[in-house]
Amino acid sequence: MKLPSKLLNIVPRKSDYFGLSKSWRIDLVAGMTVGIVALPLALAFGITTGAGASAGLITAVLAGLIAAIFGGSHLQVSGPTGAMTVVLVPIVAKYGVAVLVPLGVVAGVLVALSGIFGLGSLINRVPWSVMEGFTLGIAMVIGLQQLPMALDIAKGDGERTIPVAWKTIKNALNAGINWQSLIIVATTLAIKFATPHLLKKLKITVFIPGSFLSIFIMTAVLWESHVAKVGAIPTTLINTHGRSFSLQGMTVLAFVYAAFSIAALSGIESLLSARVADQMAHHRGLTKTLPNRELFGQGLATLFASLLGGIPATGAIARTSVNVRSGASTRLAAIAHSGFLILIITSLGTVISHVPTATLAAVLIGTSIRIASPMRLREVLRTTGPDEVILIITAASVLLIDLIWGIAIGVALHVIFTKFLKKKVN
């Protein structure tokens, strides 16, 4: 029995692993390299979301594996991301972590269906200024979300980023600034950003991620200290203990909006990340991403990760970029990344439990700075014009409202400015 053409385009095929006989060694090394980068990020994003470090690790393994097999990109690496925490943090703050299971399942189904119905090409219609503003807004929110861990203080009440951040700072001032925690953050950032320059100066060609090295050093130094740490994590890939299915206090409208927001973000960021991977590897003659298949794979990844103790996932631009730079050619690299994380979880759980949470906060603050890319932003904003206005307003909307409204406002402004300029020319 032959599958319909639409379904045939989104299922795995033998050609997914073309050239594996020649590239498998490089792919395995690339996968391990990405795994080293993914480990601290998975821990940090899980904690930031409110689901816990184990949820971040489970998501990195399961979503990374499923998306690698079923997705439309040969180079994409998926898992928990900062952009997704921007959506999930206010949801968890208002309704609790139990809502992530049904939300993740419904959002996963929506993303998979969008792939089946061929909505993958829509990402190409989003203007670059909106995407740049979207990315900048995400970076600012990620940075502000780290204040509770960085200050070692309870998070301020509320859902919106700015009010929560302000209340968190007030809590810290009222309780007395925890200088020890701030020193850990500053030291971690110093190590993270100094690592590439130090490796270059010492002429060390082996890639060592600054985030991984900073966590390794800070964990070793603070092993016996009493600073806040990650704590014990399960050593299994499935952790449904304590994860109930609950929609208590959530209206139907709120549920639909939240599920749509998660699904939209998963699709947008995954396709954007895959497009970045294609651009980075265009000279290597690899097959480009199949956008509809990518959506289908990401939908399955979010669905199963959410059911089995994780959180909704997306394609991860930073990890995907590392994968491409490491020379990956096939999906084996992303699959190996998941395998490497399984090995870490099952054998080094005690070490992970001793990682200081302030160090993880610093890693994510550093990640937000890299995402924002201050130097590139300065270049973009040197000239005035509609695109720069759209970028700034989109970023502000993401920060002050949410991601979906940010994109909607940015696209609306682009349409308005485009029509206005056309009328002006005519």
Protein described:
The chain is mostly helical. It has one domain (23-375). It is built from 19 helices and 2 strands. It has helices at residues 5-8, 20-49, 53-70, 82-95, 100-116, 128-145, 147-151, 161-175, 179-201, 210-221, 252-280, 291-307, 317-325, 332-347, 349-353, 357-372, 374-380, 386-400, 403-425, and strands spanning 78-79, 314-315. A two-stranded antiparallel sheet has the order 1-2. It starts with a helix and ends with a helix.
How far apart are the first and last residues' alpha carbons, in Å? 57 Å
- Arithmetic mean of pLDDT: 87
Oligomeric state of this protein: single chain
Largest sheet: 2 strands, antiparallel
Strand order of the largest sheet: 1-2
Poorly predicted runs: none
Range of helix content: 55-70%
SSE series: HHHEHHHHHHHHHEHHHHHHH
Count structural domains.
1
Helix run count: 19
Which percent range describes the beta-strand content?
under 5%
Output the structural class.
mainly alpha
Total beta-strand segments: 2
Indicate the overall shape. globular
- CA radius of gyration is 21 Å
